[in-house]
Amino acid sequence: MKKFAFLGPRGTFSEEAARLMTAHLEASYYPYPTIIDALKAAASEEVDFGIVPLENSIEGTVNLTLDWLINEVEMPILAELALPISQHLLVARNEVPLPFSAITKVLSHPHAVAQCHRFLKEHLPQAEIEYTNSTALAAQMVGSHPEERWAAIGNRLNTEIYPLMFAQQNIQDYSNNYTRFVLVGKQQISLLPSDVEKTTILVTLPEDFPGALHQVLAAFAWRKINLSRIESRPTKKGLGSYYFVIDIEQKMDDVLLPGAFAEIEALGCQVRPLGTYPRYIHMITC
User: Fold this and answer.
1) Contact assessment for residue 274 and residue 201, using Cβ atoms and an 8 Å cutoff
2) Is residue 208 very low, low, confident or very high in pLDDT (cuts 50, 70, 90)?
3) For residue 209, pLDDT beyond 90
4) Domains by residue range for the chain, with CATH
5) Would you state the pLDDT for residue 176?
6) What is the DSSP string of the chain?
7) 50 CB neighbour count, 10 Å cutoff
8) Which in 23, 26, 70, 253 has the greatest CB count within 10 A?
9) Of the candidates 272, 220, 286, which has an alpha carbon nearest to the alpha carbon of residue 86?
10) Domain named Prephenate dehydratase: which ranges (predicted)?
């Protein structure tokens, strides 16, 4: 039985992603208090794999995840799941939900709060915002303090795990709200087939080559290799020094990608593969 770490406590979107991505396996799931703790557990092989958020369609990259995979360990991305995210305002279970005007504090993960910015500004301008390590931790805190006039932003599963009820459902600002979760680990794993494969690389540019990034992109362009994402992250060596993380819309092959990488390295750039992997999309069902 394989062991999977996820951002806990129980009831997070990360747990949902973990269970969906590994439903075909005999698996056990272990919550960790932070993304870094889950990644460290996989890197040290305390568990076999970790499943963590990488990017949200509204708030962008989860920099904590990306920077740790770049700077702290060489642990490949093995799979990706795009999961639809619905955020709900949750309050302690009672005969009547706590009215918006009585709520003094809203707790949740920073990304969840940002995804509901307009709702909070319009309906809960008086409420203090308190950030937590996960949406499920916020739900756990609100459920364990029913005497407080608090609310949490979290998912539907939280109402089944903790003594909570809905004050308002679907409070996210945009309906097309997805988060990319990645499966990482040092071992091989049997995965379901997918029609979509991706490759992610890290490119470091030479400091004395003006126009190097243009030349890097040209190596893909003339080969008609599609790139879905390019993002810069600081190397932490000084201002103006960046890595470039590039998502390529195909799996590693024997000709096209090795040829592109060789051309890029001939420019004096460094190319580090971060993974070639299947991509899954979990569709919303009614």
Assistant:
1) yes
2) low
3) no
4) 2-85+177-184 (3.40.190.10), 88-168 (3.40.190.10), 196-278 (3.30.70.260)
5) 86
6) -EEEEEESSTT-HHHHHHHHHTTTS-EEEEEESSHHHHHHHHHTTSSSEEEEEEEETTTEE-HHHHHHHHHT----EEEEEEEE---EEEEE--SSPPPGGG--EEEE-HHHHHHTHHHHHHH-TTPEEEE-S-HHHHHHHHHT-TTS-EEEEE-TTHHHHSSEEEEES---S-S--EEEEEEE-SS-------SEEEEEEEEE--TT-TTHHHHHHHHHHTTT--EEEEEEEE-SSSTT-EEEEEEESS---SSHHHHHHHHHHHTT-EEEEEEEEEEEEPPP--
7) 29
8) 70
9) 286
10) 3-186
pLDDT on residue 276? 96
Q: Are strands 88-92 and 164-168 parallel, antiparallel or unpaired?
A: antiparallel
- Other Cβ atoms less than 10 A from the Cβ of 281: the count is 14
Whether 61 contacts 260, CB under 8 Å: no
Two tokens at 109? 């993960």
Report residue 160 as tokens: 């089944």
Cα gap 109→114, rounded to integer Å: 9
35 pLDDT higher than 90: yes
